[in-house]
Amino acid sequence: MLSALPAQAENLDLLMSQVFAHDEATYIGYESVEREDIPVASAIDRKYLIVDFRFPAKQPPAEQLQASVHKVCMTLLKDRALIRELSDSGYDMVSVAFDRRSQFDCL
Question: What's the gap between Cα 55 and its chain centre?
Answer without folding.
Answer: 15
